[in-house]
Write a structure and sequence with these properties.
The chain has 352 residues and is an all-alpha fold. The protein has one domain (5-344). It is built from 14 helices and no strands. α5 crosses α6, α6 (114-141) packs across α11 (235-260) and α9 runs antiparallel to α10. The longest helix has 33 residues, at 312-344. The protein is globular.
Length: 352
């Protein structure tokens, strides 16, 4: 703590305020919207959701820390502050432009070189895709079993043809998620060899003769380096286990919100919670998200729950409410992250 601490705090809070201003101005989100949604929650459910969300943040920061080489790894508190502040920027800014802030924050507060922090971020996203695709494959693949365990009133009003269409959609989705899971898993397991094969395939298709193809091949080389660096000394295994725990927390978070917004107690919640959270999260992981995830996240939520036969209007209403609760938490943790970075100050180790 130095005499410049108040200035750092003020500057960091101004940056956070700028993000919130952009959220209100361009995203059409008002504090009254968030407050109204929170008021519809019981205190018990809100505290449960907040606690689960905090656990997700702790696990995410732990994963970033593990994926950073030991000799370059800052303290866990600095990683947590940078990760929390970055999550707010990544969520608010469109087209994943906020992702770059993790590299900046990690360098500023932790002295982590850009290459190491970018590798940590890149591998984290790959692990997210791997775990999420695996969970979604398991749920959609075993949908007929889950449907058989449901009480008859769950599908009351649905004709046999509608149920058959639902299971057909589940089967199609399971194939797509299996492919995504195998690709992500192969990249993690074989690392540089898998990336080398991907680059070779691009050259075989003469993609290297185009500007886009040349950029993709260049990116695959950097990706290979990131995977090899993250996979050293078993760090990738630890990060994978943390990823499963993290996504278990995401599903638990949405499950709590589903219950709080009136999901029937006599109906199993795990399948719609996984489908809703999975498709909503995919909309946020892929570089297609709108400002603060509005529109794309709701679309993913409706698509996921519709696969289980939930009325789209009901799915949209619940999805918007859950999004607002999530947004309120993101703002809270993002502000705390910015405040934490200001209090920690600039790292004494320069980011190479």
């Amino acid at each position: 703590m130095t005499s410049s601490t108040p200035l750092r705090v003020l500057t960091s809070l101004l940056v956070a305020a700028g993000l919130l201003w952009a959220l209100v101005t361009w995203g059409g989100v008002e504090a009254s919207d968030i407050r109204g949604t929170l008021e519809s929650l019981s205190l018990k459910h809100w505290l449960m959701a907040l606690g689960v969300h905090a656990g997700i943040y702790l696990l995410r920061a732990w994963r970033f820390s593990i994926l950073t080489p030991t000799e370059l790894r800052p303290s866990y508190g600095r990683v947590l502050a940078a990760s929390s502040a970055h999550n707010l920027a990544a969520y608010v800014l469109p087209l994943k432009s906020g992702e770059a802030t993790f590299v900046l924050y990690s360098a500023g507060v932790g002295g982590v070189p850009a290459r190491a922090s970018a590798a940590s971020l890149l591998v984290s996203r790959l692990l997210d895709l791997l775990v999420l695709s695996t969970c979604m494959f398991l749920v959609t693949c075993f949908a007929p079993i889950f449907a058989g365990l449901m009480p008859p009133e769950v599908f009351e009003g649905s004709s046999p043809e509608e149920l058959a269409k639902m299971l057909s959609r589940m089967s199609t989705a399971s194939v797509a998620f299996l492919i995504a899971s195998l690709v992500a898993g192969s990249a993690c397991l074989f690392r540089a060899r898998f990336v080398s094969m991907t680059a070779g395939l691009l050259r075989l298709l003469h993609m290297d003769r185009t500007s886009l193809g040349a950029k993709l091949i260049s990116l695959t080389g950097r990706f290979a380096e990131a995977l090899e660096e993250a996979g050293a000394k078993g760090r990738l295994l630890g990060a994978t286990l943390l990823s499963f725990a993290l996504w278990g927390g995401v599903i638990a978070f949405y499950s709590v919100l589903l219950v709080s917004f009136g999901w029937p107690e006599d109906q199993a919640i795990i399948v719609p919670a996984v489908l809703a959270s999975g498709f909503a999260s995919l909309a946020n992981i892929l570089p297609i998200n709108g400002f603060a995830g509005f529109g794309t996240q709701e679309g993913g939520w409706v698509l996921g729950m519709s696969l289980w036969g939930v009325n789209p209007e009901l799915a949209l209403a619940v999805g918007v409410s859950a999004h607002l609760v999530q947004l309120g938490n993101l703002v809270l943790f993002g502000l705390l992250g910015h405040l934490g970075m200001a209090l920690f100050g600039t790292s004494e180790r320069p980011a190479a």
